[in-house]
Amino acid sequence: MDQAFIARSNAYAPYSKFTVGCAILLENGEIIHGNNQENAAYPSGLCAERVAIFAAGANYPGVAVTSMAITASPIDDSFEKPVPPCGACRQSIAEYELRQEKPIEIYFMGAAGKVARANSLSDLLPLIFDRNYL
User: Is residue 46 within 8 Å of 22, Cβ to Cβ?
Assistant: First the structure.
């Protein structure tokens, strides 16, 4: 989670003022950072979780993601409720989890307070739409 806080400190959120950081632990021990990157041409920005998981897939193809930590809060760090991944991020994480055939542990929190844990993306998105429906 400490690495997710580092990632969140580099978020680019001039419009929403809501920063998100994600740190992904790969099976080989590498840690990949991601943070939300906004754009004036909504919805051209990208969430922290997708920045991180896409970077992992691009730079370490074939290396499994074991876990991810997410922290999110307004810039003033006032949010203490755990913030889970959005729907688009859940779908992207699901694709990686299915591809690697291993669950990804997901830890998430606000700026402080309780850390929530999901053993797998399927805990957050039980009826996953995947390639079996295509």
Answer: no
Q: Helix 48-59 to helix 87-100 angle, to the nearest 10 degrees? A: 30
pLDDT at 118 over 90: yes
- What is the strand order of the sheet 65-74 is part of? 31-35, 18-26, 65-74, 105-109, 116-118
Query: In the chain, what are the helix, strand and coil shares in percent, each to the nearest 5?
Result: 30, 25, 45
C-alpha to C-alpha distance for 39 and 104, rounded to whole angstroms: 29
For residue 68, what are the contacts with CB-CB under 8 A and spacing of at least 6? 22, 23, 24, 25, 49, 52, 53, 93, 104, 105, 106, 107
HSE-CB for 119 with a 13 A CA cutoff: 2
- In percent, how much of the chain has pLDDT > 70? 100
Q: Which residues are catalytic?
A: 49
Phi and psi of 7, rounded to 5°?
-60, -40
- What DSSP character marks residue 107? E
Quick: pLDDT tens for 67-79.
999 999 999 988 9
